[in-house]
Amino acid sequence: MAEPKIGVYICNCGTNIAKVVDCDGICQRIAKMPNVVVARTYKYMCSNPGQDMIVEDVRKHNLNRVVVAACSPRMHERTFRKALQTAGINPYFFEMANIREQCSWVHEDHDAATAKALAVTRAAVLRVAYNEPLEKLYADMCPNTLVLGGGIAGLSAALELADAGNQVFLVEKTDRLGGNLARVDLTAPHLYSARDLLTDRITRVREHPKIQLMLESELKNLSGFVGNFVALVGPVKSNGNAPREQSVEVGSVVVCTGYKEFDASRVTHYGYGKLPNVITSFEFEKMLREGKIQTKEGRIPQYFAIIHCVGSRSRDFHGYCSRVCCMTALKYAHEIKSALPKSYVSDVYIDMHAFGKGHEDFYRESSEVKTLFLMYGKNEHPVIKRAQPGDDCEMLIEVNEKLSGEVIEIPADMVILMVGMEARPGADHVARLVNISQDKDGWYIESHPKLDPVATTTEGIFIAGTCAAPKDIPDTVAQARAAAARILGKIARQKIEIDAVFAEVDEDRCSGCRMCNSLCPYSAIEFDEEKHRSKVNSALCKACGACVAACPSRAIKARHFTDEQILAQIEGVLA
Amino acid sequence: MSPKKLQIALYWGAGCGGCDVAVLDTNEFILDVAALADIRLWPIAVDGKYQDVEKMVDGELDLAIFNGAVRNSENEHVAKLLRKKSKLLMAFGSCAHMGGIPGLANFTTKDKIFATAYLDNPSIEPGNHTVPLPETKLNGKTLNIPTFYDQVYKLDDVVEVDYYVPGCPPAPNQVKAVLLAVAQGQLPAKGSVVGASEHAVCEDCQREKKEKKITRFYRPWQIIQDPKQCLMDQGILCVGAATRSGCGVRCPNTGQGCRGCYGPLPGVMDQGAKILSSVSSIIDAKTPEDIQEILEGAPDFAAIAYRFGLPASLMQRNVSP
Amino acid sequence: MTFEPKIVGFLCNWCAYAGADLAGTSRIQYPPNVRVIRVMCSARVDPTFVLKALREGADGVLICGCHPGDCHYTEGNYKALRRYQLLKKTLSSFGIEDARVRLEWVSASEGQRFADVVADMTEKVRALGPSVFNTAKQDQPQHVHQEATR
Amino acid sequence: MAIRVNPRLIDDLEKYGSEDVSKCYHCGNCSAVCPHSKEPFIFPRRPMRTLQMGLEANLKRSLEPWLCYYCGQCSEQCPRDAEPGETMMGLRRWLTAWYDVTGISRLTYRSWKFDLLFVLVLGALTCAGLLLYGFTHGDIHVYDGPNAFLPVGFVHLFDLGLAVVLISLVVLNSARMWWFTIGSRKAIKVPILHYLRGVYLLPLHFFTQKRFAQCGSKTLWALHLVLVLGYLTMLVLISFFLAQMQAGPEINWNVHVFGYLAAIGILGTTIFMLHGRLKQNRAQFKHTHGSDWMFLFLLLYVCTTGILQHVLHRTGLDLWANVVYVAHLMGVVAWLSRVLNKWSHLAYRPLAMFFADLATEPLLETKKIPEVAQMQPARAA
Questions:
Q1: Residues of chain A positioned with their CB less than 8 A from the CB of D53
Q2: Which chains touch A (3 or more CB pairs under 8 A)?
Q3: Distance from CA of B132 to the nearest CA of C (A)
Q4: Between the CA of residue D46 and those of B19, B287, D35, D53, D59, what are the distances in Å?
Q5: DSSP B218-280
Q6: Residue contacts between B and C (CB atoms, under 8 Å)
Q7: Which residue of chain C has the CA closest to B214?
Q8: Is residue A379 less than 8 Å (CB to CB) from chain D?
Q9: In this structure, are residues B66 and B92 in contact, taking their beta carbons and an 8 Å threshold?
Q10: CATH 3.40.50.700 residue spans of chain B
């Protein structure tokens, strides 16, 4: 490789750096270092003149390495790499020394700060000499998509993709489509029937030539990487009529495995399972769908009580809000009042979360139909007890009512527990299969909660709907279609870009000890049985370097984070 | 064969003598050696005095094979002497190469060693505090013995070394190969390791290797081994993956984990650190407690990782003042 | 003047390094003794680096990764933890004081925590005094001669 | 001990005119804008909450409704159109019914049909009584003088009778009010001395209604004042100058002029109110309960008949004057029967001011205790 010719640029960042760090002093010291051709200071290196300065110097002194001592590389590394590209040298011949966030902004002592800044800059100069030119890699994009889960999310995603003319494999664990939505009667706030929402989509999916439906099946294994996955799909339980295992090639995976409702019997004080007419929201939905609301004894209840946040927003169970229960509860109030106008509905809540479009109006309407809203405190809870023979109701709910400050008891013949959402028991298994992570509550983690809500840290794996967090139908559908859109974008590009920074195995050094094989979080390391060599799949590798550090024969190299580069840095900071 | 015979010297520094035996283990080949070389110094086999060597002109020897580490002033003296008199100096065996087993003494100090050997030893008669001194006055005369250094050095710490032949001891076939190479003048660039391969022991090890996860360590006698399976996969600590091959997989073939005598692979700065890094990586535990529990199975890990290479490691020795 | 320890810091790109940047953007002051080297993950830190740093005269080495469970690479920090624990065992055999090498979890949102860790470590290392490789940087032969003439 | 919620109460209250209370979601704007709402009497919000939850016991002992003059600001401010003002009005009616010992009040409020019947019956009875006396003792053609159809003496007796009934009713119901709001409550112990100290509030508020003046617009307060003064003037004239009033035909200015003024005052106000309620031009005019219509109608009737019989007598048509006089008295009786509903607030308001003043201190004292009491379940949970 050509003799390194390094240009070093120390940024004043206005006064941000210069007011604490003696930039010119550093500049003179650095200029004396071997291989350093030019060293300059400038007011704002990130400004256009600043970047132009680099470009000119590269051309004038035909530099082949550049170091900028300025802010955090997390801030401007991309900016300067672009500058190098325009100057016509490989962007990876660049190093950045962080002398703002990690120096001038956190230290007051000028000398100490200057010394530190000098050290890190020196380290960068020594390191950059070992930097190597890296090129991005490309792989083909398979236009097929695997959709896990046949709920409203899965259906929406599948249709979106298939309608665009791409093959979709829709895998559903149960023997029917529709997921949790299929268990619901009407939907808040517009009171559309869930049936109507679903039937049309289900029939379209069933008849769609581009969608292969796999019922009673689940993902058994997923190998490969974005654009080139191989998925093994097999029957949930191998009984006679169930489909046999089948492996399909897909470019992307959309995980829409949905949620499971909270098990109300875990909350002992509501006596669910003991008191016959304390039921969960889903049991009530069933009544509504069957069109007969009655107690276990077959009587028509007169007093209804709906208790919110069962298992949600509590110290003891889930801390989060399940988001849909409030509106569902109001929906029940509506349905009860229209079915039994003479009945009374008490709605016992912590806070009324009416955040969505049309939700506030829905809330008002349900108060107009004389739903009695009663507020209880977070981390307190209503207690349900049987009523006395004299009472005209079956149960009494005692609660410390916040808005009146009174301890009250509410008459009830039927109590509906608004059970929250929680991650499915099998969620962790799926997470391991497709290599995505879960948060403390078991929900799948998106690659960025705000800016990248449907992608995950594993490229080509997308999440949509309530497997990512509790959400209502509109949000779920929006996510599903967003995921589909992201995939369609990839398909349109036909090629997958693979980041240039990844680990690679030197076959001549590797002796096949397989120490590294189990270390990769992305199973990017494959073992070649013939050659007795381990191999890193660069498309899967995310460059953490765990295998590199572990390799006992230094056969694995972390591109752009090689031992030489880091050792040089160590010498640099300590010199 | 060259008209003039090769002039060679073999020396035994701080070591067990196994290296000399390894030379003899070349069996009848030793006769060929004798045929093609004059052995000018070989304390274990042929008679010869340091004075004879001192009398030589510089560079008179073609090859000096030095085994054993540098533990005392005599070792250093002879090392420098041979360096002066010989065209080529070869660090022969793990001790000369990396410090070897004697190098483990660097985990402690001269004083501690002396205390154990000459003071606190049960076989010492009470009240006797005799400790070897470099210089002793005895009725008017001074008696000198070599100075025992505070730490063990590998050969190239004291003199420039041309070639390294690793192994504890070097495998006879490798010895043979090296000597032939010398004889035929087919040696690689100076400073390189000869008589060993560029790959790890695993390369030559026939045991079947799988993905590794260690849930507990076993000493070889603690379990019934599967002779076909990688020792590490069975939880038996084997540092073969971090060790040059060339030995012919001697230890693993006998069901012992490789102990690392052939030293680090090319470009590896610190063999022990690499052993440490790879072994710890595959421990199958997440909490400090669980990890600790598994590590208990590998007592005195430092000694395992640096069994042959302590003086050649980055730390070289226990550095506590 | 008081002894100012030199500490080499290996910070993972996703949590600790971001956390250190956050300390900067929120102008949290801390001692200037740690010189940071960015790695993608704490699992990239080869024990060789630590030994090398100590050998080169670092008075301390600080490794920072994501909190357990939060690793950007799901489990890199656990690998770092395993290596660290075995490394500590080994370092004690080398007679290197416990406080000189340290592994800490710092998330991207814990600027203050990073500052505290640095401050605390700096104090502890300062208390230990300079590393032996700083006090006595001897090149071997000369050292041997001293031995010989003793 | 937990209080039982009664979801039915809110339905019951609808009959008394508070229809929108269920819309309230307790933002508290109403209590914030109300010039009279202050601890320990926070309203309209608290009473509305108590009503929504149907905590009957708490409502029955509450004074808050009476401290409200229905200026309507709360209803204008309400983001949910829950009409707090109207709710307070409804609560006042409900309380009146509750205080009323006869129970007639309850019936008249809950059904306008009954109210109408009740009024007609009263009128009929009165008519019968008057005619019976007139024809037996006097001459239908004579308006005043010795053998007048309804001589002053008799009318005095008649009024006296009415007064006795009215006063006893008012006293009885007021006593009940005291018992529910103060007497029966353990939380409130009031030393006799305090009663004496605060009793001045009764006449003060009765005559001035000064708190009403603090509500947004002064117009209504002024009108009410005019009305009350009208009533009083009439009361005085009838009680002490009835002879001069009836004497004629020539006008006795130094007496009659007061009558005219009072009549104009009352008539004017009545017309203003009627017009307002028909046009619904003010917050407090938007909802008109049957009892309100009845009240205004009677007021109008009494006024007009009163004036008419006076005029007829002056013009010498004594026969007709007598007929209208009877009709007038029929109206008067029916109108006075409003003491069982609308009218009663004349008494209850000043009383409420008085009681509130007595209850304030003890309530503020006890207020601290229930808060602590509330904490217990929280800890238990």
A1: 372, 374, 401, 404, 406, 408
A2: B, C, D
A3: 13
A4: 100, 56, 15, 11, 10
A5: B-GGGS---TTB-TGGGTB---GGGSB--S-SHHHHTTPPP--TT-PPTT-S-HHHHHHHHHH
A6: 103
A7: C82
A8: yes
A9: yes
A10: 6-102+151-183
Give SS3 for A497: strand
Dist CA B320 CA B301 (whole Å):
18
Q: Please list, in sequence order, all residues whose beta carbon lies within 8 angstroms of the beta carbon of residue A274, skipping any fewer than 6 positions away.
A: none
The CATH label, of 1.10.3470, 2.60.40, 1.10.10, 3.40.50, for the domain at C7-149 is 3.40.50
- Find tokens 């200037």 and name the residue: C32
pLDDT tens digits for D292-339?
A: 999 999 999 999 999 999 999 988 888 999 999 999 999 999 999 998
**Same structural domain for residues A373 and A518?**
no
* Structural domain boundaries, residue A430: 145-258+424-493
Gap between the Cα atoms of B237 and B298, Å rounded: 8
Chain B residue numbers with beta carbons less than 8 Å from the beta carbon of A535 are none
Residue with tokens 């106008």: A341
The structure tokens 């209080």 sit at: D3
In the three-class reduction of DSSP (H, G, I as helix; E, B as strand; rest coil), residue B214 is classed as strand
* pTM score: 0.69
The pLDDT of residue C69 is 78
Q: Based on the fold, state whether residues A433 and A414 are members of the same structural domain.
A: no
Q: How confident is the model at residue C147 (pLDDT cuts 50, 70, 90)?
A: very low
Residue A5: its H or E element:
none
Residue-range domains of chain D with CATH: 9-99 (1.10.1060.10), 104-354 (no CATH)
* Tokens matching residue D353: 């001011």
Within its chain, how far is the Cα of C129 from the centroid? 15
Q: Is A378 at the interface with chain D, CB within 8 A?
A: no
Residue in chain C closest to A457 (alpha carbons) equals: C72
Q: Tell if the CB–CB gap between B241 and A518 is shorter than 8 Å.
A: no
Asked if the interface predicted TM-score (ipTM) of this complex is over 0.85, the answer is no
Distance from CA of C27 to the nearest CA of B (A): 34
**d(C-alpha D39, C-alpha D360), whole Å:** 8
Strand B148-153, strand B70-72: pairing: antiparallel
pLDDT tens digit sequence for B55-83:
999 999 999 999 999 999 999 999 999 99
Among A447, A473, A493, residue at a domain's last position: A493
Minimum-distance CB partner of D374 among A370, A371, A407: A407
With respect to CATH, is domain B6-102+151-183 assigned 3.40.50.700? Answer: yes
Q: List the one residue out of B17, B24, B9, B316 whose CA is nearest residue B168.
A: B17
Q: Tens digit of pLDDT for each residue in B290-314?
A: 999 999 988 889 999 999 999 999 9
Taking CA atoms, what residue in B is nearest to C79? B281
What's the rounded Cα separation, in Å, for the pair C125 and C122?
A: 5
Is A139 domain-assigned? Answer: no
Per-position DSSP letters for A392-454, written without gaps between them: SSSEEEEEEETTTTEEEEEEESEEEEEE-EEE-TTHHHHHHHHT--B-TTSPBPPSBTTTBSS
The answer to whether A201 contacts chain D (CB < 8 Å) is no
Nearest to C43 among A98, A544, A569 (CB): A544
The answer to whether the beta carbons of residues C131 and C46 sit under 8 Å apart is no
For residue D40, whether the previous peptide bond is cis, meaning omega lies within 30 degrees of 0, is yes
Res. C141: pLDDT tops 70: no
| Inter-chain touch A546–B281, beta carbons under 8 Å | yes
| C and D make contact (3+ CB pairs below 8 Å) | no
Question: Which residue type sits at A192?
Answer: Y
Give the nearest chain A residue to B213 (CA atoms). Answer: A518
Give the span between the Cα atoms of B154 and D207, in whole angstroms.
Answer: 116
The distance of A558 to chain B (nearest Cα, Å) reads: 15
Q: Do A156 and A207 sit in the same domain of this protein? A: yes
